[in-house]
Amino acid sequence: MSDPNSDLNRRSLEAFPSWLRTLPADVRVLASVVEDAAVGDAGRENVAGALNYLFKSVDLIADGIEDLGYVDDAFVLRVAAASIELDAVSDGALRTELERLATDAALVREFMADDYARLESYVSGLASLVVRGRSAPAIAGDPEVRQQFFGELNAWAGHYVMPSFENDDKNLVKLRAFLRTKLAG
């Protein structure tokens, strides 16, 4: 009989490095959601909050921490994507990309287990934060603020260097411990 945790760990160790590879592209996908007025204010603000998280000075896991620093960013983007009502997305290609990210969020849910609800709550709360003088409602509602924000997102994506993420179960243990500790506080 196989250990279900070993299967989850195997799938996580396969997925998480690929999420780190696609992080800049995923940022651009979610930026497109913020511009899609058909999504509605609440959905656009939720995604803007998740994107604003990239510039938050206190991440759940600091970006320089070992192999784990950007995995929390990938998780936050996927949880935000899963919160979008896909039928409201006007562009079919964008909807397909959001479906991919939302499907990935199912692995985050499985990986986080009992802590997923706290992560989900944390991500929805990001819309109320002000980062670099910008709130999610301002990003979603003000075209000038949004364009400035998108310029910073593009610069971030252009300078992003994918960290290594070793195929080691110890990384998963550390990741769970970091997230559990930060989300509990």
What does this structure look like?
With 185 residues, the protein is an all-alpha fold. It contains eight helices and two strands; from the N terminus they run αααααββααα. It has a two-stranded antiparallel sheet with strand order 1-2.
List the helices and strands and how they pair.
Layout: H1 4-35, H2 41-52, H3 71-82, H4 92-112, H5 116-125, E1 130-131, E2 134-135, H6 136-141, H7 143-159, H8 169-184
Antiparallel strand pairs: 1-2
Helix pairs in contact: 1-2, 1-3, 1-4, 1-7, 2-3, 3-4
Could you give a short description of this structure?
This protein is mainly α and 185 residues long. It has helices at 4-35, 41-52, 71-82, 92-112, 116-125, 136-141, 143-159, 169-184; strands at 130-131, 134-135.
